[in-house]
Amino acid sequence: MPSDAVSSGRTPDQRLAMRFPPLLHAVAASVLRLPQGSRVRRAFLERTARTSFEAWVRGDYDFLRVAADPKIEVHIEMASGANGFEAPVGLDEIYHGPDGYCESMELWAQSFRNWHADVDEMIEEAPDRTLIVARHSGEGLVSGVKLEQWGAVRYTARHGMIVRVDAYFGPDREGVVEAIGVQD
Predict the structure, then answer these.
(1) Most Cβ neighbours (<10 Å): which of 11, 40, 153, 175?
(2) What CA–CA distance (Å, rounded) separates 84 from 108?
(3) 14: domain CATH number?
(4) Which domain holds residue 109?
(5) 93-to-59, 128, 168 alpha-carbon distances in Å
(6) Residue 2 is inside which H or E element, if any?
(7) Segment 83-139, tens digit of pLDDT
């Protein structure tokens, strides 16, 4: 059960989704059937990205779990220099299921103090794929050093639920966008 501070940050639609997950999935599936680039679809995706990242920052993993398909896969890589990528320290390369989805986000967030993430851009790649580019900042938990990382995260959805997440993290925006490869 989330703390009152975590759940009190929920928007009215997030509270409704927590109470009636099938409603969230039906609305998301309906909106995702709209043509790419439509104003309603774009507004829905941008708001969903922003409020979901806010939920991640406040540690509301119960809410985030509602959007995950039971068979979700999460793939995570981080720049390791010379255009190489590997799993970030303390994280596995692949997580499975809603619990794994939330565990990957929780482990990332726990490595920072005063952690924050800001959505920079949302790109509709395909009817079922959305790419979110975000800046992550905070202080290293152990070192106390101020850090800034960029993330490019591709979400693939089916029937209104997230079925796959591909995430790349690195020190610069261009590098992570190039690494994930924007798909048209």
Answers:
(1) 153
(2) 20
(3) 3.10.450.50
(4) 4-180
(5) 21, 23, 11
(6) none
(7) 555 556 678 889 999 999 999 999 988 888 888 999 999 999 999 999 999 999 999
